Amino acid sequence: MRPRISAGLVIYRHRGGQLEVFLAHPGGPFFAHRDDGCWTIPKGEVEPGEELLAAAIREFEEEIGFAVKKVGPYLSLGSIQQKGGKFVHAWATEQDHDDRQPIRSNEFEMEWPPRSGRIQSFPEVDRAQFFPLAEARRKVKERQIPLLDELVRLLAERAKG
Predict the structure, then answer these.
(1) Can you give the chain as a three-state secondary structure string?
(2) Higher-scoring residue by pLDDT: 126, 1
(3) How far is 102 from 148, CA to CA, in rounded Å?
(4) Which is the CATH superfamily of the domain at 5-160?
């Protein structure tokens, strides 16, 4: 069986002298009342034969609804394995975005409430925004924290020249 592979994109900016990262809150009824520890980098499954970075950009645009307009290079953040076994490959690029602009996420369908026979649609992402790094570490899924740590390391390395 082929392992499940996703690709994601961490958009970052500098505001007020601090690093901020853009995170997405999963939509649907299971996450409606959850906050800390459940946000994620915008990501999704890689199509057969698709390049990982291209998949990361495509998934970001599908889940968030705005185009990626990078300012600098794409920085490879490596990969992590989530609790469910899925591997997530991630990149970062600098971009600003107005948090007041609403997102336009694609949707998924599921039976809700369970065993009701009713199929309902929910957005994959119900909200997304920039967070200062310390807050982002609290909000993001624990297994994705190393991706944020790698971003900090790479930016510090670039600053040294």
Answers:
(1) CCCCEEEEEEEEEEECCEEEEEEEEECCCCCCCCCCCCEECCEEECCCCCCHHHHHHHHHHHHHCCCCCCCCCCEEEEEEECCCCCEEEEEEEECCCCCCCCCCCCEEEEECCCCCCCEEEEECEEEEEEEEHHHHHHHECHHHHHHHHHHHHHHHHHHHC
(2) 126
(3) 24
(4) Nucleoside Triphosphate Pyrophosphohydrolase (3.90.79.10)
Domain ranges of the chain: 5-160
Cα separation, 91 vs 95, in Å, equals 13
Name the pLDDT band for 1 (thresholds 50, 70, 90): low
Cα–Cα distances (Å) from 153 to 67, 85, 103, in that order, read 26, 25, 29
User: Which pLDDT score is estimated for 106?
Assistant: 83
Q: How far, in Å, CA of 152 to CA of 133, rounded? A: 9
pLDDT digits (tens, 9 = 90+) for 36-94: 999 999 999 999 999 999 999 999 999 999 889 877 799 999 999 999 899 999 999 99
As a whole number of angstroms, the distance between CA 150 and CA 39 comes to 18
The rounded Cα 56 to chain-centroid distance in angstroms is 9
